Amino acid sequence: MSQDTTIPMAPGPGAAPQADPLDERLSQSLAGIKHKILVMSGKGGVGKSTVAAQLALGLASRGKAVGLLDVDLHGPSIPRMLGVPGHARVMEAEQLIDPVVIEDGLKVMSVELLLPNKESSIIWRGPMKIGVIKQLMGDVNWGGLDYLVIDAPPGTGDEPLTVAQEVKDARAVLVTSPQEIALADLRKSLDFCVQVELPILGLVENMAGLTCPHCGGEIDLLGHGGGAATAQRFSLEVLGSLPWDPKMRAAADSGKLISYMAREAGQDTPWGALVESVLAAYGEGN
């Protein structure tokens, strides 16, 4: 991947500004993608990346052409949760990067798949991060996609702002847990979407209770109903309410989320219902 940081000279008086080749490639790449979904959260630890992976896997299992892009440059987790092997292939001459293709043809891309050492830290300032994110969208050989699911880091910094500004027809999926400390930060993400004119597809309440393995009763670990109340207050659709699932957590930690989701992605599960809600929001449901 090119990391040329040369600053171009400003055009002389009366000269037409030169088009940025990367911007042109980005525009061409995005034109071949039907729907773009930016998965966001106000704070870390609410399971946003897991939700993004669940959504991408579920859409792919229903026959959609799907890409999953991890733009969390400092803490990428998508490749590890999915057990993605090896590295992405960089074709220098063509200025293209081949994503890694996994189950059901799902195309996965993350900066971690470009690092020789996956334990290396990324120490970049804003301009460098913006350029790399544009490359991950514009220089990756996505091909024609029905859906591109973009997993952004928590908060309202460079990464979600770059996607919101560069992907004009993206829509946001906001992820929160029921607890007020998460909802307070989620409201900042809501304000971000309003200010940058990023349409919101809906809200996902994650970690919404746990079924006791002993008595079968419901345990509200992080409160109850906070996501639904927030969605009602701001006239948002609740796309899904997902329980705290220790088995899913273990599967993600061990890189086996794909095999777990293959067993759990039916329409009669909370995760299957989430996928169906997103398809319905785009007029593609059953």
Written account of the structure:
The chain is of the alpha/beta class. It contains ten helices and twelve strands. α2 packs across α10 (270-281), α4 crosses α5 (158-166) and α8 runs antiparallel to α9 (257-264). Mean pLDDT is 87; it is low at 1-11.
Q: Keyphrases for this structure?
A:
about 290 residues, alpha/beta, Rossmann fold, eight-stranded mixed sheet, two-stranded antiparallel ribbon, 10 helices, 12 strands, globular, disordered N terminus
Label the CATH architecture. 3-Layer(aba) Sandwich
Shape: globular
For the record, give the distance between the C-alpha atoms at the N and C termini, rounded to a whole number: 41 Å
CATH superfamily: P-loop containing nucleotide triphosphate hydrolases
CATH topology: Rossmann fold
What percent of residues adopt helix (DSSP H or I)?
A: 25-40%
With strands numbered from the N-terminus, the spatial order across the biggest sheet is 5-6-2-7-1-8-9-12
Quaternary structure of the protein: single chain
The radius of gyration over CA amounts to 19 Å
Order of helices and strands: HEHEHEEEEHEHEHEEEHEHHH
Largest sheet: 8 strands, mixed
Instruction: Count up the helices.
Output: 10
Q: What ranges have pLDDT less than 50 throughout 5 or more consecutive residues? A: 1-11
SS-based class? alpha/beta
- β content, as a range? 15-25%
Class in CATH? Answer: Alpha Beta
Overall mean pLDDT stands at 87
Our count of domains comes out at 1
